[in-house]
């Protein structure tokens, strides 16, 4: 391939019957954008690596983020997640502790959604959060 991007390893992970994640060079990026997802829960992320640092869910049909959307049982699925892109969905509501265990989150993109209000606890304990886009 060209000199800018050297792709040494392609790893395709089945993340649901609807979607595939492409992880070039074990980069820690899970891209489930434009997959027609209507909700997110543990079953969507069954075979996805728990140590991913970036999760892209943009351009789907997600309408609500539940408190257990990023949980696997009672623990957080993505314990090292730094960036979460939920842009351009149809999100109208986010439960108050939906991002509660994503303690390392630095970047949260919620742009292009239908949010009219946010729960007061939504961003509690987000000491590392540097950027949030609600546009």
UniProtKB/TrEMBL annotation:
Its main location: membrane. One of its GO terms (biological process) is monoatomic ion transmembrane transport. GO terms for cellular component: plasma membrane. It comes from the Eukaryota. Keywords: Cell membrane, Disulfide bond, Ion channel, Ion transport, Leucine-rich repeat, Membrane, Repeat, Signal, Transmembrane, Transmembrane helix, Transport. It is a single-pass membrane protein. This is Uncharacterized protein. PANTHER family: GH08155P, LD45603P-RELATED. It is found in: Cell membrane. It comes from Pinctada imbricata. Residues 1-21 form the signal peptide. Gene3D superfamilies: Ribonuclease Inhibitor.
